[in-house]
């Protein structure tokens, strides 16, 4: 196994003492980079996901071009439902579409259990290849959607405004919802375990839509399955990051889900959450992604505020509070990354 | 002045002792009602807003058909920017569009100060007419968007996913944003005062997009203007409701904004917020609107949970955590309203 040269990210996940705050950003391998768009012109989004060479190429771009402290494998959370048998289409500008959403017991029965080494071999190959090409420069993160977040897409048939269909399911047929969530939890557990086996040094669970649920429903339909997955992932020392976007309540409980790191969106206060959850988890986040539309001065000012908000000591992984937006200038991200690298040492004395 | 026969809503706003919990729901005069759709077939949305007879007709529908404890005047938050000079279009299925959004100082300078008695006379006429036709059965609520929420539409040119343009403005030209927010605050203050003068018994400020801001930005670009407006509204005893949807932090501070009532969305816990803010404000909300997709049993179960969550004593106005959705069966809302009326007495002994 190649020794990782810059392991700041991994040490921050474990709240070990480090020299400076590590930084990576969600969607760092993405459309804001001209080099990404050049690859994307040659292949559609799903082809990129399914071609390990292309996935590895764009995964490495922000390491080479921006200088972030971790790589995250280029992929999509919806590859799992697709592997379970659903037809997945990516529509330019409209986002992902499942033309045959899951609404009934019959639909749900058609979802098959997956063997990631066969059904998602292309992701694992992309992980192995990226790992080789990274050559130990920085750690590699694998990821999945949470069961609840995947369920919303599978039931709605794509993105949604009011999530009417999945809400109808949890209120009118909670048993059906739970049976699919169970199936998804198993799939996600073996998938994330296989990613670690293939070389991922950490995994992140994206719960993008946990925040649309009331507190009791979030516990019942999302958090309990995340806990189960974290308990089931086969890992040695690889940290798990849980990012429950928009979930603001019961954070002490959320922080006890078994994850090493809690991801926070930009509406949270890092310092207050740190005080609340204590030493249980490291925190990742949480600058408003739209700050990157600002001037160099604004970006630096907000970045410093973010670090000050967390305060002194280890356990903070700098990130945005959500994915970087496609129309951000790469130079602005570079400004942020360099600033955090140069100015975070004061918090680690 | 006509005496109001059912003044439960007004007394709950003031936390006075009452016999049962009052209930009304956001967007109760809306598309879920076949009687509303019948009116809507004869006139487009803005024509309905601008024709006092039609606005009054649909405002009264849920009073007659559903039996809610308050009426809310049928209108739209975007009539203010329109009155300030912006062209407003309502696109079926796509929502409101401002074809010429406000992005520059020049754009902002074109916004005129409004005199509601002239520029929004049709709203005031609708209020007076509705008031007359209500004949004191229940109180009438007037409303406005918050300055920040109006600004998002004015700068984005309509609804938005990432709010990129308005965020660019607050980060790159905060002075410009503040100057428009000032202008909006004055307009909203005189508008809500005029609505009260015309007969509104209470007013609600909708801050639908306060929750997309970080905590400091929310304070700077939204809350401080809401405080100013509440301070400026000319009223005798008419309560002010502030509904900062998606704002989860610093609720003690939010509760001190001067409003009599704080509206909460369904991701909040009524009981916890009550414990946090104490006697400062009454609370309005907050059942997940999608619960109305559920069976009678589910609706009753969740309604009881909502009331239990608030607990005993006055100061709770039952409402949904957001507007009722267009595809909800009116019978389901009626089930909710009747259940709350019949089963809330136990909390007021």
Task: Walk me through the topology.
The structure is a homodimer of 349-residue chains.
Chain A: H1 8-13, H2 34-42, H3 45-50, H4 52-65, E1 71-72, H5 79-83, E2 89-91, E3 95-97, H6 105-109, H7 116-119, H8 121-134, E4 140-145, H9 147-156, H10 164-172, H11 174-198, E5 202-206, H12 215-232, E6 240-243, H13 251-254, E7 261-263, H14 270-277, E8 282-287, H15 296-310, E9 316-320, H16 330-343
Parallel strand pairs in A: 1-4, 4-5, 5-6, 6-7, 7-8, 8-9
Antiparallel strand pairs in A: 2-3
Summarize the structure.
The structure is a homodimer of 349-residue chains. Chain A has 349 residues and is of the alpha/beta class.
Order of strands across the biggest sheet of chain A? 1-4-5-6-7-8-9
CATH class designation of chain A? Alpha Beta
Radius of gyration of chain A, CA atoms, in whole angstroms: 19 Å
Which CATH architecture of chain A? Alpha-Beta Barrel
Question: Could you describe the largest sheet of chain A, including whether it forms a barrel?
Answer: 7 strands, parallel
Count of helix runs of chain A: 16
Written as H for each helix and E for each strand, in order along the chain, the element string of chain A is: HHHHEHEEHHHEHHHEHEHEHEHEH
Secondary-structure-derived class of chain A: alpha/beta
Measure the end-to-end span of chain A: 31 Å
What portion of residues of chain A is helical? 40-55%
Overall pLDDT level of chain A: 97
Percent strand of chain A equals: 5-15%
**Count of all domains of chain A:** 1
Name the chain pair with the biggest interface and residue counts per chain.
A-B, 33 and 34 residues
């Amino acid at each position: 196994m190649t020794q990782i040269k810059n392991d700041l990210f991994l040490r921050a996940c474990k709240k070990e003492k480090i020299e400076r705050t590590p930084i990576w950003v969600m969607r760092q391998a993405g459309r804001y980079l001209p080099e990404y768009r050049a690859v994307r012109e040659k292949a559609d989004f799903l082809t990129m996901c399914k071609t390990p060479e292309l996935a590895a190429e764009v995964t490495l771009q922000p390491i080479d071009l921006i200088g972030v402290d971790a790589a995250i494998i280029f992929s999509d959370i919806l590859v799992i439902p697709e592997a379970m048998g659903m037809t997945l289409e990516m529509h330019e500008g409209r986002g992902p579409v499942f033309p045959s959403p899951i609404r009934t017991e019959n639909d749900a029965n058609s979802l098959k259990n997956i063997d990631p080494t066969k059904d998602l071999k292309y992701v694992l190959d992309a992980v192995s290849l990226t790992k080789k090409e990274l050559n130990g420069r920085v750690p590699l993160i694998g990821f999945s959607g949470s069961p609840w977040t995947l369920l919303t897409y599978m039931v709605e048939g794509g993105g949604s405004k009011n999530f009417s269909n999945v809400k109808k399911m949890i209120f009118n047929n909670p048993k059906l919802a739970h049976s699919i969530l169970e199936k998804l939890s198993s799939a996600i557990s073996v998938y994330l375990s296989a990613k670690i086996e293939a070389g991922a040094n950490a995994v992140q669970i994206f719960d993008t839509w946990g925040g649309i649920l009331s507190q009791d429903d979030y516990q019942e339909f999302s958090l309990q399955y995340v806990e189960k997955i974290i308990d089931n992932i086969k890992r040695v020392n690889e940290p798990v990051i849980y990012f429950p976007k928009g979930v603001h309540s019961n954070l002490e409980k959320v922080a006890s889900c078994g994850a090493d790191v809690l991801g926070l969106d930009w509406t949270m206060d890092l310092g207050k959450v740190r005080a609340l959850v204590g030493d249980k988890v490291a925190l990742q986040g949480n600058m408003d992604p739209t700050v990157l539309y600002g001037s160099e001065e604004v970006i630096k000012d907000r970045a410093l505020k973010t670090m000050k908000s967390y305060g002194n000591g280890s356990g903070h992984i700098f990130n945005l509070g959500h994915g970087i937006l496609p129309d951000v200038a790469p130079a602005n991200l570079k400004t942020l990354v360099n600033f955090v690298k140069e100015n975070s040492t004061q918090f680690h004395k």
